[in-house]
Design goal:
Layout: H1 16-23, H2 27-47, H3 52-65, H4 68-81, H5 86-97, H6 108-120, H7 125-137, H8 141-152, H9 160-171
Length: about 180
């Protein structure tokens, strides 16, 4: 991590003993414990806003909780600390897409972030997939086919992802 991004090392999180104790708790008590830990991290980040790893952990925690808006906010803080990091942008995209149904349109901000990542890492699988989805929905079938064909070359040929991409390409035949 570049110097100056974290005021002090962030706590590593719960110990293995704490994790084991949490596993034996009733679900309601476990949920309260998790919520308390997330709230404590969020409060600490108000006092230590330059803790990149803390913002990333908070974003992931909010995603797990199903709170996409708070996750996006946490990732935005992280991106401000490390603006050129494509992985943070992809995590933001994931948070923006969380909870969407397959037929839902991609949020414009997610599409813009995907474009930014594509400018730096055009072969990122997530970028190829989602920009192919956008192209197909916009009627740019040749562009979608190109992106998904390129994606197929990056995936293990026998995997579930490759099967899904092949099916998407097949749906474009004749278009």
């Amino acid at each position: 991590m570049p110097k100056g991004l974290a005021a002090e090392p962030a706590p590593a999180g719960p110990t293995p003993e704490q994790m084991q104790a949490a596993e034996s708790m009733p679900p309601e008590q476990r949920a309260k414990l998790v919520n308390d830990m997330i709230e404590k991290l969020a409060a600490r980040l108000k006092d230590q806003p330059n803790d990149l790893d803390g913002w990333l952990r908070l974003g992931r925690a909010y995603v797990v909780q199903g709170d996409g808006a708070k996750a996006v906010d946490a990732y935005d803080h992280a991106a401000a600390l490390k603006p050129g990091d494509s992985s943070i942008k992809l995590q933001t995209v994931s948070a923006l897409l969380a909870g969407l149904k397959p037929q839902d349109p991609l949020p414009p901000r997610a599409v813009a972030l995907l474009g930014e990542v594509a400018a730096v890492t055009p072969d990122a699988p997530e970028v190829l997939w989602y920009l192919g989805v956008v192209a197909a929905r916009d009627g740019r079938f040749s562009d979608a086919r190109d992106k998904w064909t390129k994606l197929l070359g990056l995936l293990p040929p026998d995997g579930e992802d490759a099967k899904m991409v092949r099916e998407a390409v097949d749906q474009l035949k004749g278009k």
